[in-house]
Fold this protein.
Amino acid sequence: MQSINPNPTQTNALPANPLALKDIHLPEQITNYPIAYGWWILAALILLAIVLIIVKLKQTAKRNQVKKQALAQLKNNVDINNSELISLLKWAAMHYFSRVELAKLYGESLQHFLLTQLPEKHQTRFTELSEQAFKNQYQAHFHNEVDTNFQQATLLWLKQALPPKSTVQPKRNNANIHSNRNTNLDQQSKGVSP
């Protein structure tokens, strides 16, 4: 016969406290890194937009630099005469338009060129203010004469015509002119018309 053991074996034993619970384990702290790809793309797009805006602002400032210099010269020199005003207009225009075409203009042809660069709504005002100055340009008293109307016309043109809109013919440099001449000479020597 078997003997009965008053102490049951550990395998059949019940826990000492059946209501005892195991400790609660918290999950690991969730970190902010690595950031999701969408945030990196958004940050790159924002950075790209900032860089493009800065580049565009610098280009605009550089493009308006000559205009600002001309306006400052006009503002600082109240007694500027008509001859100096025409020189100032030509100087400013040569920075934005073709130097080759502009250098040969004078008198009414210069006035017509300046007039065509203005928006239509300012053309009649410019004509009224500058008409007398361009008519008297080659008279003896013209060079020393201070004409407030022509000063106003110059101011109007500098503010409204510069920098030119995109529809205006771009400025050509001397390298392009020489290459065009060389091309035409080569074609003529071969018997081909340009």
Remarks:
- Confidence is low (pLDDT under 50) at residues 167-185.
